[in-house]
Amino acid sequence: MWKTKLRKDDIEQADKLIDAIDEQMFNLLNARASLALEQLRTVAYLGPQATYTHQAALKYFSSSCKFLPTKSIREVFEKVDSDVASFVIAC
């Protein structure tokens, strides 16, 4: 086992550095979370408005989402593959 003597100044300097890194990480995570909340999420669902899938989308996703009706299961998944939609309801 290594034995080293740490000076009080070294420990204080290390603490300040750790605190600064913690603050930077906290600010970065906060900024990313804020951006995620600001972005409008799109939910693609199978069928027209007022169908069961549309009702399921409304029930499980925030009203701040954009809801996108589709005509086929293939189209629903194409919307996600092409990043037009973030989520899918196809039941």
TrEMBL record:
Biological process per Gene Ontology, one example term: L-phenylalanine biosynthetic process
Domain annotation Prephenate dehydratase: ranges: 42-91
Gene3D superfamilies: Periplasmic binding protein-like II
GO molecular function: chorismate mutase activity; prephenate dehydratase activity
Keyword list, A-Z: Isomerase
Highest taxon in the source lineage: Bacteria
Annotated Pfam families: PDT
EC number(s) from the headed UniProt entry: 5.4.99.5
The protein's name in its UniProt record: Prephenate dehydratase domain protein
